[in-house]
Structure formats: C-alpha cells, structure tokens
Write a structure and sequence with these properties.
Helix content is 35%, strand content 14%. It has a 7-stranded mixed beta sheet, with helices on both faces. It has one domain. Helix 4 crosses helix 5. By secondary structure, the protein is of the alpha+beta class. It has 8 helices and 7 strands; from the N terminus they run αββααβαβαβββααα.
Length: 268
C-alpha cells in the first residue's frame, strides 16, 4: 500500500463526542490537492488551503534544515489538521479525534518520514513565552482526554524531567515540534501556531538502519547555515529531557516542564 491507500483502523476511535465531531478538520495531500480525511467528500475551505499552501512553502524551501520534514511533505506522507485557537476545548477535541486516526493509519505510509501537522487559528501568541505556555496548555489538555482511554507508550518515560521522556498519545510516543510567528529560531518561525507530531518509532527505525546519525548531522549543518548556530536546547535522546526542545525557546537551566502526567490507571 502507498501512503494514499485506505487502511482500516485497528481500533475504534474513542474521541467521537459531539465536540470532537464538530471540530475534526484533517486533510491529506493527494494528486496535488487537499482531500478531507475527517469528513469524506468535503472540500478544503479556502482558509485551510491557505494554511496548507503556506506550510508546504515553508517546509519545502531549499534552505529549510529538517530534511526529514521535507521528505514527508514532498512525498505526501503527512496529514494536516486546522483547528480553532490553540488550547481551546474545541481544538483539543478535534485534534484528539484526528490524531488518533493518524496513529491508526500511519503504517499505510510505508515510510520513515511521516508526520501529523496541527495548525491553529489566531489569535497568535505575542512572544515566545506566551507560545510556550500555549503549547503546554494544549499538550496538557490533549493528555487529559487521552489518559481516559490509553496508557503512556511503554517505550518512553512519562516523567517530563527524565532524559527518556517523550510525549505520548494513543500509546504512541511523539517528538513535538512547535512553530509560531514569534520564534527566534528561523526554522521554527511560521505564521500559524503549529504543533508537529513526529512518531518516535521512526527515529528508532532509522537508528536500526544506521541512517539516524547521518540525518542528524545533515540537519544540524543546515541549521548552522540558516541560523549561524544550532539550537542550544538540542540533545540526543537519553541525555536530557526532550521536553526542553518542544517549544523552540532557549529555556533556562532551571526550567521545568509544566506537563502533569496521569496514567490510565490513576485516572480511572
């Protein structure tokens, strides 16, 4: 199967209450046009088309550092969701519905470079600190929904201070990349507040194929060419908590992740 082929989900989507169904808004890029995943047959509204076109232009710019993201975009191995204000109840419900479906359908892509992109409508944050707060508010709200149905991915630590921490949704560990128009890092400066969900198992597969280190070196070289230096928060998995990297701000040594994780057993 290709990334454009349908795949029956292994599990029933638990995020199907009225709020989720009203706010689901997920699209795939097929045959050079957006196709609605959430509601079959629905055309992409002009506002969604604009967000998508802006995002593709941003990621596929020749100087953009992350070649993995470029590969996912150029091959069409991604889904794009466009939601209301980041952190709002509607955005959280719609995102939960669409991200769960993405997790279930991800094997159909047959690629090491797949991603889920969640863009949010204005108001935009005024500075990096506000965006960071919104990012963690959104991830906390998403976790609060998810913990009712799913445990944390056993392949990652649920302790945000642990060097083995990764964010988990639907029992799938993700590395989160936050983008906004107020970022100091050029590779993170995109007009729409955005969260990119990159599944951790893809990194592990690249390591097993002896491709990860070369990819990492290439990305860091391109980052230096674009910005003049690499993000001071960058670290290898297992050396420091990756939560420090999610929002893109150069956080202080004393910074502590505000995410509060409650596993499924504690929540029930």
């Amino acid at each position: 199967m290709t990334g454009h082929s349908p795949l029956l989900p292994e599990k029933t989507n638990p995020f199907t209450d009225e709020l989720a169904l009203q706010n689901r808004a997920c699209f795939a890029y097929r045959s050079n046009e957006l196709a609605c995943i959430s509601t079959l047959g629905r055309a992409a509204p002009p506002s969604v088309q604009t967000v998508h076109d802006d995002f593709r232009a941003f990621i596929t710019e020749p100087t953009y550092p992350c070649v993995g993201a470029r590969a996912a975009l150029l091959s069409g191995n991604y889904w794009l969701g466009v939601y209301n204000e980041m952190g709002s109840a509607g955005a959280t419900a719609g995102l939960a519905h669409d991200l769960f479906n993405f997790v279930q359908h991800q094997p159909s892509f047959k690629s090491n470079f797949t991603t889920f992109v969640a863009c949010f409508t204005p108001p935009a944050p005024s500075d990096e600190l506000e965006f960071e707060a919104l990012l963690w508010q959104q991830l906390q709200s998403l976790h609060d929904l998810d913990r009712q149905f799913h445990a944390w991915d056993a392949a990652a630590s649920a302790d945000p201070a642990s060097p083995y921490f990764s964010y988990s949704f639907a029992e799938r560990a993700f590395f989160i990349v936050g983008l906004s128009g107020v970022q100091s890092r050029l590779a993170r400066r995109f007009a729409w507040p955005t969260l990119i969900f990159n599944a951790h198992h893809q990194f592990e597969r690249l390591r097993a194929q002896n491709q990860y280190q070369r990819l990492q070196q290439m990305i860091r070289q391109r980052e230096i060419a674009l910005q003049g230096n690499i993000n001071p928060n960058l670290c290898d998995f297992g050396t420091a908590s990756e939560a420090r990297q999610y929002a893109g701000r150069a956080v202080e040594e004393t910074w502590r992740c505000p995410l509060h994780v409650t596993d499924k057993e504690q929540a029930s």
